[in-house]
Amino acid sequence: MNIYVRSDSLAEISTAAEAGLADGILYAGSGDEQHDPTELSAIVAEFALPVCAPIGAMTTADMYREARELARLSDRIIVQVPLVEDAVPVIRRLTVDGVEVCANYIFNAAQAAIAARAGAGKVLVSVPDLDAQGQSVDEVLGEIRAVFDRTHAECDLMAAGPRSAAEFTSCILAGADIICITPMLLRTLILHPSTDRALDRFLNEAGRRGKQRSFT
Questions:
Q1: pTM score of the predicted model
Q2: pLDDT tens column, 70-118
Q3: HSE-up of 82 (CA within 13 Å, CB side)?
Q4: Rounded Cα distance, 120 and 153, in Å
Q5: I want to staple 26 with a disulfide (CB 3.0 to 4.6 A). Which of 6, 135, 173, 182 is the partner?
Q6: What is the 3-state secondary structure (H, E, C) of 27-91?
Q7: Which residues are paired to 82 by β-bridges?
Q8: Euclidean distance between the first and final Cα of the chain, in Å?
Q9: CA–CA separation, 195 vs 136, rounded Å?
Q10: Domain count, the chain
Q11: What residue numbers bound the domain in which 78 lies?
Q12: CATH of the domain at 79
């Protein structure tokens, strides 16, 4: 299981990378947003990590053109393409060109299988979007995992946007290869409500042991 930090902040990404908790970057987090070439270039230059970046175009020609422009920034760029009908030949063409593609807007195993068949090296499933649709995150991720395993698909399953430690753990157990999380959630995963109490107890016990040794 790998972690991609979902951010466009150099400082936030740096904190996670220095701690060894960033295997990649999900730039800006949303396929709906147009990327900032200057900002994206700075991130690519700063970190030796794969960067998954979205395109904003929706027509076949524009999607291909924008994806190629993104790919020219670095060979570590993973172009995030929305899985719409016009995108399928684009995914195939980009793959033939040697561009790594992540297919977005995946809501079931059938879509994931088609994206992988077209050549996508990754498929991204949004946890909040599944919740909004009333779909079971565990069930959808589990079905995609089962399909990929059964068909020996060379495609990573990415789960994006878990909002709690419980959802993060569910994504792991459902078989996600990559989990995309915000720096805020990453900090939450490190801490626990019981941590402060346990630390206070440890310090109190250590203090008592120190006093006992001082009397002997």
A1: 0.86
A2: 999 999 999 999 999 999 999 999 999 999 999 999 999 999 999 999 9
A3: 17
A4: 10
A5: 6
A6: ECCCCCCCCCHHHHHHHHHHCCCCEEEECCCCCHHHHHHHHHHHHCCCCCEEEEEECCCCHHHHH
A7: 104
A8: 51
A9: 31
A10: 1
A11: 2-214
A12: 3.20.20.70
